[in-house]
Write a structure and sequence with these properties.
Distance between the termini: 43 Å
Helix content: 25-40%
CATH class: Alpha Beta
Strand content: 15-25%
Number of helices: 14
Radius of gyration: 20 Å
Amino acid sequence: MSHIRVAGIDPGTRSFDIVLLEDDVVRGEASLNTELVAREPQRLINILDNMSVDYIVAPSGYGVPVTSGAEIREARRFAVEVLLLSDEESIAEGVKAGEAGVWVYSALANIVEHLIKNYGGKALFLPAVINLRSVPRHRKVNKVDMGTVDKLASTFLAIHETSEKESIDYEDVNIIVAELGYGYAASIAVKQGKIVDGVGGTYASTGTLTSGALDAELVAGVGNWKRWDIFHGGILEALGAANMEDIVKGYEKGEEPHKSYLEAYIEGVAKDVKRALTSTPKARTLIITGRHGKNETITKRLKELLPELDIRNLKGLKGASKSKEAAQGYAAIGEGIVGTYFKRLVEHMGIKEACGTAVDYIVHPRAKSFVERVRRAYIETMSSLKLCEDS
């Protein structure tokens, strides 16, 4: 019996992780610095070429309906304008200015362009939370980031693991998934095994790199924003810290302002989890993923703030030793689309029925040209469209 080999690529702020999956077992892993991938995309391509993959689940940014590379007419424009909601000028300007966050965009665009041109129908792109029909329309109003594709991927893995750990059907899985990544934190609500809501990283509370949701008075006061400003305003920048570990050390000693800023971050995560609980009130478990989710000080404080929840980390798939949960989830979803092992969970979550773009539910009049530009790019770069009837 032949087994389908699926590679998943998670484009993180700090690193690009690759996972090679065969059925439910990880057969290969790799991690490359994001800046290196942006400068030398061939490094990542060489790893993929040596993995003998049948399908590659490509970095998918802010999300699209399930799409194969063969359906995409203009690879570069699709990557930049649809997946990244950006433009070439902004990316070039950010890279020239040395903006670390823009390296993610540059690296993702380079890799996606290569995969579409060289792998065609073997390259797959995935939806984000906002693309899912299981999320009611009223929760999508004026939202873009309800959880990017990597957050959906981690949640997919969490649903699978919870079902197996507790010996329950997907229909009985009611959980919150909080991803505490290097740059962003997000909370995703799962009700009866389906994603029904999400508080995405740029919409969530203050993060490590990103400021999170901003007071509109601040937005109006600044007036002119750059695309890469979403990578600024977090606690790392506020403290001039190189990493979270330095902040935690100050917090544990009771030093200011470290104590206040880390408390703002942790309490913000707890508040976002509470928001997600509104959409899945039967949830009694919080599953934490991401780089900072393994920090014992952060986890301990979250347990104090959320005593009603059983808080635990993801174990990950069999064979995984170093890859991020999101990369494993990317590969698992891909396997469920083209293979058999995760097929039932893909069907249960309605992933293949996802539709539309990340900007379809914005109603603010000032965003009209932005919405039109992204939707036009999606329509013009695709050979077959999967628009939502209600968008």
